[in-house]
Amino acid sequence: MTFTITICALAVLMIFGLPISVSLLISGMLGYMITIGVGPGIDALTQTAYSDLNSFVIIAIPLYIYMGQLMLKGGAGKDLFSFAHRITRKLPGGLAIAATLASTIFAAISGSSTATAATIGSISIPEMRERGYPKRLSAGCVAVSGTLGILIPPSISFILYSLVTNSSVNQLFLAGIIPGLMLAGLFSLYSIYAMRKRKHPINHTNSEQSAEVKAPITFDMIASLLLIPVVLGGIYTGLFTPTEAAGVGVIYALLLTIFVKRSLSLKLFWQATMASVETSAMILMLIAGASVFGNTLSLLQVPQDVAQWIDSLNLSAIQFLILINILYLILGMFMDAAAAILVTVPILLPALQALDINLVWFGVILVINMEIGAVTPPVGMNLFVVKAICEDYTIKDVLVGAFPYAMMGLLGLTLIMIFPDIAIWLPSLSKN
Prior knowledge:
Elements: H1 2-15, H2 20-36, H3 38-53, H4 60-73, H5 76-88, H6 94-110, H7 113-130, H8 135-145, H9 156-165, H10 169-197, H11 211-214, H12 219-225, H13 227-236, H14 242-260, H15 266-299, H16 302-312, H17 317-331, H18 337-354, H19 359-373, H20 381-389, H21 395-418, H22 421-429
Helix pairs in contact: 1-2, 2-3, 2-15, 3-15, 4-14, 4-15, 5-6, 5-12, 6-7, 6-8, 6-10, 7-8, 7-20, 8-10, 8-20, 8-21, 9-18, 9-19, 10-19, 10-21, 10-22, 13-14, 15-18, 16-18, 17-19, 18-19, 19-21, 20-21
Organism: Celerinatantimonas diazotrophica
Domain TRAP C4-dicarboxylate transport system permease DctM subunit: 7-421
Transmembrane segments: 7-33, 53-72, 137-160, 172-194, 215-236, 242-260, 281-300, 312-331, 338-355, 361-386, 398-426
């Protein structure tokens, strides 16, 4: 009965438009207080929320967000797209491939799907439209490529997943590299295929042949790219923990944008700081709310009951994973990755452990599902981000353009399901 009241309260609060973090917090507190009383419930839940937020690993989240914002406001996105364009300009659909490549690189800096789509989209879509690329292809390419932000390390989604499952952040970061590159490759292959099918030639008369495109790769581009080996190289060589690497990344981003590029004004610095504070507060509130809600479910023995129920179905690991994939594809229509991870993984964890499913592999599967959800209505955030930066586009334009790229994402997900080594080979080489 208490579980039913808790779930109904959560649903009602979300229907009335409360943020999911607040909805989780209130419904979790309600269930806890019904179970053990008001006074003891409040005391236990405040301690739970504090202890879960008082973590060295969690410090990495606001730092990675700040690093990404500094690079975003400092113009790193333009550098990365220009770099990618110089490499891919002679290929069919070169600009679309450049957008995918730039998104892949920027994802390794920002860790955010929406920031990646907004940054690379605002630069690449006008370029593609000017040169006659199909309207829907240009929008869909950027919307789906932007989702790589939650898979390519450093990924905030993987940090949250590690908190819930006690998996190694290093292992999860390593596990995201090959799948992320594979998906970028699949998106690029579709762009080549789609542009080869076109009957009308692309216009190469403007900036494609400009001195800017033909110019050599600049120092600013190299300096922006170096942030990735500085942060990830430090983690994988054991010089830094993921949290320490985030701090190093912030310092590098500040030095680069203030003293090397000289692109970060005081106004832009303030904007980057405030945006980071707002995003970090939102995620930390979500962690606190999910912690309280998850603690309530544990008190009510929900994860254990779910594990027993799944065990009674006598499902194989692969059958269970197929059902979970369907669940996450549906959840992705309504929840972002952070919320889905924090709410569902604690419930599923006993079943995953009972079926002896590799938690690092499952983390990659989960995140790819949520990537696809980021371009799935009604709450596909990347669809709305791309629509917002292209005033003459409709949601239908972006959605139709994103569909074939999302199918490439499903193909990649299927390959990782069939061949787990795509995700777990690199982590198997690491001792961390």
